[in-house]
Amino acid sequence: MKHIYAGLIVPVSAIIPIGIGFFKRLYLNAGFNIILIYLVFAMVIDIAERLIGQRHINNLPLLHFYTLVEGLLIFCYFRKVFNNPKFQLAINWFIPIFIVITFVDFTFLHSIYQFNSYARSISAVFIVICSVIAFYSNAVSENPRIMSFDWITAGILLYFSSSLVYFELLNVLAANSPRDIWNLIQNIHATFVLAMYALVATGFLYEPS
């Protein structure tokens, strides 16, 4: 029961932006449908990790898979919604590099049964850069995108920027933190996930049906 917040309430809360997205038929939007896929994927993987962990089975291989798919989906989202050829070219170059980094991480740097701190950190850094560029470009554009884009970008930026140190130190924290401190860290991280879901849900609400 002590893990119910980070292990159940927060993962299941993804159903709120998912429900809003489907109610408003945003799956027909070429950009927001990627975010919907990401939210569904995140919720399914989070619940699967919880169920596997309850059986005392190492669930970290799922995290390696999740990191790869999460990064690819968010990179594709920014590439789709941001009509800047240089920006899109940079993402096109980074995607195969990121795939290689992910495989190198669990093949040579960390076991697949350890946290993939390098791949998670590098993915987060690039996502933060994408978010900042997107915010700036939208602010100075003569034809700025609608407000829903800013809300969703804010959610992505908040979560990944706040989690950078957490991602980098995952293996150290998991191995050396007292159980109560580790649970607190997990709950803080879960709160940033919840904040991202709330901001994405707000963005979906601002998007015209």
Description:
The chain has 209 residues and is mostly helical. The protein has one domain (4-206). 80% of the residues lie in helices and 0% in strands. It has ten helices and no strands. The mean pLDDT is 90. Keywords: Membrane, Transmembrane, Transmembrane helix.
Low-confidence blocks of residues: none
Q: How many individual helices?
A: 10
Number of domains: 1
- Indicate the percent of residues in helices: over 70%
Based on secondary structure, the structural category is: mainly alpha
Order of helices and strands: HHHHHHHHHH
Taking all Cα atoms into account, the compactness measure Rg is 17 Å
| Average pLDDT reading | 90
Q: What percentage of the residues does DSSP assign to strands (E)?
A: under 5%
Most strands sheet: none
Q: Rough shape?
A: globular
**Terminal Cα span:** 39 Å
Task: Compute the number of strand runs.
Answer: 0
Brief account:
By secondary structure, this protein is mainly alpha-helical. It contains 10 helices and no strands.
